[in-house]
Amino acid sequence: MALLDIVYSLAFYAVTAVFVLGLALRITLYVRSPAPLKIPTMPAPLTKQGVALRMFREVAFFESLFRSNKWIWLFGWVFHVALALVLLRHLRYFTDPVWSWVVLVQPFGMYAGFAMLAGLVALWLRRVLLERIRYISSPSDHLMLALLIFIAISGLMMKFVSHTDVVAVKAFMLGLIRFDWQPMPHDAPFMIHLTLVMLLMVIFPYSKLLHAPGVFFSPSRNQADDSRQRRHLATWARDMEAN
Amino acid sequence: MADFETPALREYPVIPHLKRDATAGLSPFVAKPEHQERLGFPGELLDNWEDVAIAKMGELLEKYRALRVYLDSCVKCGACTDKCHYFIGTEDPKNMPVARQDLLRSVYRRYFTFAGKYFPRLVGARDLTREVLDEWYSYFHQCSQCRRCSVFCPYGIDTAEISMAAREIMDAVGLGQKYCNEIIGKVHKIGNNLGLPGPAMQDTLEGLEEDIKDDTGIDVKLPLDVEGADVLLVTPSADFFAEPHIDGLIGYAKVFHQAGISWTLSTYASEAANFGMFIGSYENMRQVSLRIRKAALDLGVKRIIFGECGHAWRVAYSFLDTLAGPFDFLDPRYPVPQHICEFTYDLIQRGALNLDRSANDHMVVTFHDSCNVARASRMGSMPGGQFIIPREVIKASCNNFVDMRPDTIHDQTFCCGGGGGLLTDDLMEIRVKGALPRMEALREVQQEYGVTHLAAICAICKSQFAKVLPYYDFPMDMIVSVHQLVSNAIQLGTKE
Ligand code: SF4
Ligand code: SF4
Known about the structure:
Shape of chain A: globular
Number of strands of chain A: 0
Structural class of chain A: mainly alpha
Oligomer: heterodimer
Strand content of chain A: under 5%
Bound molecules: iron/sulfur cluster
Helix content of chain A: over 70%
Strand content of chain B: under 5%
Order of helices and strands of chain B: HHHHHHHHHHHHEHEHEHEHEHHHHEHEH
């Protein structure tokens, strides 16, 4: 075990803690803040099941975005679906034996990396070239795309340019999970890839990436249209009435 | 007419290029101390307004999940950028919904998020300065809270919620809007937006009874404060005096008359509108709503029905039970509350009304979906009933009906340009410019189908169109009430 392996191992735990705790805190905050008024965007489903379906269409197909703008939808959706496949594919570095459905995803996951990169580049081009979207972008919006693009490129390099020893990668990861530390492969693409991913995990709970949990807490999408059926009252409003 | 140019109607709507600060200087009159204090707000801008504003923002973040989630979740995808009628009409980039949100979000980030505290430049966070406050005052009064942007946002981010919060913060520091706050004060004191006292109402209603009698020879009543009536009708006070609103009121009266259902208006709750929503004030909205509860209890009615008004119907449909419920003292067979269009539609379905469509043969009618009815409430028992029911009422009353372009109706409808507390002369420029997309869609059906009339079910839409149509060379009286069409078609004396 070189010093570098120890540094990376410790950093990995720290980063995971920031990611998990930061996200948990944020989500707790969302859960605990009340939604005092019924504000679903209409027409809205009348029942909880209907809401679940609406949410599913929103999360799986980006329904509202599709209605809004076909280009943003295309690029955004391709990027997210590809990202999901890539993430699933990565499970094989964290599980032993590898679950059979992960094996099935494997071949798709590999090419999804390219789709993900294409989606990201297209989104960035829009952000740079379109006057309106350039106007609403902060430096962080550009940097976020840059970060994701470099993650995708470094990942693809490991597979298609300078082959990384994935057996060693897997041993390193499993070692981290089992608290039985193993050395990691010391080659540039892998180390860049891992560093950038850790950076992304740290940023996640403090950035616009909160849209991922946020969408589930959006009252305009997660409320049922039943205000004439049952009375909806927030705790603070009830307290106010009591006075 | 005014010192601004009415935008030209475009044949093919395209997304405009940005014209920075095009309407930066456009802001409504500031509330006077007396208007502010009546609502419990500081009379004028506090010396320590920055601290108070930040504290208020913190309080709202605790009270409203929507605000926090919406401020956190925007990814700057740009999907909403071309969806706001005020952006389309003014070309000012700060009227793009996400940019409007960012006026508040930048301050939220600075004071409430890690990134904004330590890396403000990176994430576009800003200190709250006088310039920022002035910008809020301008641009949060250039949002009609129509929710069109929310329909298209992948996370449902609703700029209306943001602008309500911003207005509440501004009220808390003593920078209120005159138009809204003066009006809310009148409702608290007198019972309606106009400050119309009971005797004046009585006079008006008697005058209308005479008019109907002259017109039709039939005694149709417009009862006021009748205890024991079945139905309490709560309608926007504009229905008592403005054109074409008043023709709608006459229509409701005729419907009640032919159906033989006893009803009454109330002097105490003589206003359906609830501007408490526009300023984001739960407390004010609640006080206005409680008047309706009290009137219903005092008069001992069984049902509550709302007249044609968009945001009033949102407050009624979505919030009334929350704010002033429970309404378990009313007849459980009817939803609380009901919309007058639901009521009339039911009667039509049951064959209880005798309507002669040919009475409206001189018109080719199209229908303007009002934002708050379309995107914030419902009618009937199924989703989307708010689109179907008013159209069915229109079609039962006239032979010639056509819809405007599909991407300008239903939940994609464009605001009239005057909603959300903007219906005031000091904001005429934004009202005219914001009407552009609706006017374009109207021109299309006028040219293609010879549409002569635009029907609406909202007091604000009606007033706004009456004022704005002439700017675009449409006749002012093109705008009609839906129940005005019913009123024309109903054959009094044949069913009762
Ligand atoms: S709510 Fe309506 S007026 Fe306000 S930003 Fe959204 S689209 Fe524009
Ligand atoms: S559509 Fe929603 S997420 Fe996209 S820029 Fe607008 S507010 Fe932000």
